[in-house]
Amino acid sequence: LFVGIMLSSTIVFMEKDSRAFFRNFTTPTKNGHFIVMTYLTSLFIIVLQCAVILAAVYFGLKVPLLENFLVTAAFLLLGITVFILIGMVIGDLFNTSEAITMSTIAIGSIFIFLSNLILPLETLSPLIVKIAGLNPYVIVSESIRKSMLMGTWFDGLYHELLILGIYIVGLLL
Fold it and tell me: Under 8 Å CB-to-CB from 17, ≥6 apart: which residues?
């Protein structure tokens, strides 16, 4: 969550702040190229970090990661994509590194506070539970939990796939 948002927003800001930005701006390189390359760079780094962490969890704690690997990998990829795109939007909206850092910490903290990580969602008011149900962190973590522990396949997680797809399309636009 934090790495995806922070890394991608920092990469976008570094590109905007670099001395080569004007040269890149005047060349016929399209903005889509920079968007795709920022996404792929962030994706590569975060997938590598996730692989190291998941290998440590698999071999150290004997968690059943490979039981439903396709669904788990799909939701990890979708979650990483959502958080990278959120970071790219933040990096594009703000013009200083301080503003980017503060906003990524604030948004990441909101995602974490409105999840099961600190307080169980059942203890909160029904309105906040509904809002927290749309939290991408909650959607991804609950979907991965369902796929790993309960063996739920894509058809049982259709609603979560739809919400993450809407987030991705909305952030790309």
Answer: 97
Rounded Cα–Cα distance for residues 30 and 142 (Å): 37
Pull the structure tokens for residue 85.
């795109």
Q: Counting beta carbons within 10 angstroms of the beta carbon of residue 106, is it exposed (0 to 12), middle (13 to 18) or buried (19 or more)?
A: exposed
The tens digit of pLDDT for each residue in 120-145 reads: 888 888 888 888 889 999 999 999 88
Contact assessment for residue 111 and residue 57, using Cβ atoms and an 8 Å cutoff: no
89 secondary structure, DSSP code: H
- pTM here is 0.90
In the chain the first and final C-alpha atoms are separated, in Å, by 21
**Residue 8: which residues within 8 A CB-CB, separation 6 or more?**
38, 39, 42, 83, 84, 85, 86, 87, 88, 91
